[in-house]
Amino acid sequence: MSTRLKVYVGYDSREDIAWQVCRLSLNRHASIPVEVYPLRQDTVRELGLYTRPQDKGAATEFSLTRFLVPYIAAHEGWTVFVDCDFLFTTDIARLLDSLDPAKAAYVVQHDYVPRSASKMDGQVQTTYPRKNWSSFMVFNGAHPAIKALTPDVVNTQSPAYLHRLSWVEDKDLGALDLGWNFLEGEYDKPEQVPPAIHYTNGGPWFPNCQDVDFADLWIAEKARFEKTLETA
Questions:
Q1: How far apart are CA 37 and CA 27, in angstroms?
Q2: Can you give the pLDDT at residue 1?
């Protein structure tokens, strides 16, 4: 396996700052070369990889394009997809040490009921099986199940089929520690800072989310990002 890791961050034009901060937090902690790319819907449409009709009801612009990531990455090693509303607080290389090459993919296998009926940005909070499993995925590009996750599958299968990971058998799906997709606001705040904080109900880039758990960490990372603009 190559020591260079490709990470694709879901990009939503309404939350550019979330992507910028997520990317910085990934790069700042990484001990190995990490290639971080924004997964933009307009780009994959221009490439002819994504042909589904526009879904105005989708929560994000990358709701379904995330499943194109292993096809886009086009290599045999591990590739990561992550929502833009994440903050990494540790070295993502730590994740690779525990991965079994016999598995097709790894996710945090959440089992919870959302605590609120709506998200902080006003969107309706829905409940469905395997909710939030697909917000952080580690794909094994060498596995047959991942090779079979082609643009044709992504463009024709139902959102439920894709998000519930029906494209991989349960036996081929690995489980990550909860900290790699810690759902802020859904789990009680732990004493130790999780490796990857997911502001799934709305992060500090929204005016009404300034006091969520670990908001101070995200705000500090945003300040670092702004410093990079000053010195660019």
A1: 11
A2: 42
